[in-house]
Write a structure and sequence with these properties.
It is a single chain. The protein has 259 residues and is α+β, with helices and mostly antiparallel strands. Helix content is 15%, strand content 35%. It has four helices and 17 strands. Strands 11, 13, 14, 15, 16 and 17 form a six-stranded mixed sheet that branches. Strands 3-9-8-5 form a four-stranded mixed sheet. Strands 4-7-6 form a three-stranded antiparallel sheet, with no helix packed on it. The radius of gyration is 36 Å and the shape is elongated. About 10% of the residues have low confidence.
């Protein structure tokens, strides 16, 4: 045996003395995280989770903020379909203090008075509590109410009415010309004056009746029966109590009687 063959045999024997470590198996892919709380019912079926990071929480919060205008005395929706758990996943504080009511993933605030408020949202899912987001909002009085005859489906001004229209309505109702305020916020009618102005060729003098409440009283109905084609009928000094605690005078209504 030559010297080179002896060296090869010695190297092979030396390698065989070290233990061989088997090759590791490939690591299986991690299972996707299962989201916990739904936040928005949209086309992407995006879900909120208690494992969302800080930036995701803020993004969901901003997306869910529902309104820029807030009013006294009514429930204002501030978060829409924001299904994190208040008190567990996050805290919601208002300064000055105002009432917060959660309902089916949305959150409503009832402000006691006008002024500047700070809405503070805190992410509680981390070990250390921290302020996540603050928003300042201006709270104002409910806009002035409008009035119309009951049963009138439109909110546009009408200048003509028949005696039949008046008796079919039998009352005045309030409404607001702002779509995002609930109808109950338009207020309660306390009283109003109704004036009959006869047409020019009629000798009868002007009549005026004070009506309490929204429904036409017996005295007012008696006057309405005297109406003739061409008369003018005016509702004015219409006193309304609003949900924000204020009293308002609504704009007058004037109708020309057509039959």
């Amino acid at each position: 045996v030559c010297s080179s063959d002896l060296r090869n045999i010695e190297q092979q024997l030396l390698q065989d003395t070290f233990p061989k470590t088997p090759a590791p198996n490939p690591k299986p892919p991690a299972a996707p995280a299962t989201p916990k709380y739904p936040v928005q019912a949209d086309s992407t079926n995006d879900m909120a989770s208690n494992t969302d990071n800080f930036d995701e929480f803020i993004q969901r919060l901003i997306t869910s903020l529902h309104s820029e205008t807030f009013y006294v005395g009514i429930e204002n929706e501030v978060l829409h379909e924001f299904n994190y758990l208040m008190g567990i996943d996050f805290e919601f504080e208002i300064t000055p203090n105002a009432e917060v009511r959660p309902n089916k993933g949305s959150f409503y605030i009832k402000f006691p008075k006008t002024g500047l408020y700070t809405l503070r949202f805190t992410d509680k899912r981390k070990f250390k509590k921290k302020v996540s987001f603050e928003k300042k909002v201006q709270v104002q009085l409910i806009p002035p109410p409008q009035v119309k005859l009951s049963g009138d489906g439109s909110n546009s001004f009408k200048e003509f009415a028949s005696v039949k229209d008046l008796f079919s309505a039998n009352r005045l109702v309030t409404y607001l010309q702002i779509y995002d305020i609930p109808s109950y916020a338009s207020g309660r009618i306390n009283s109003y004056y109704v004036t009959r102005i006869p047409k020019e060729d009629e000798i009868m003098s002007t009549e005026r009746v004070l009506n309490y409440g929204d429904v036409f009283s017996a005295e007012l109905q008696k006057m309405l029966r005297k109406l003739r084609k061409g008369d003018l009928l005016m509702f004015d000094n219409i006193q309304v109590t609003m949900k924000d605690g204020t009293s308002r005078t609504a704009s007058p209504l004037t109708f020309k009687i057509i039959e």
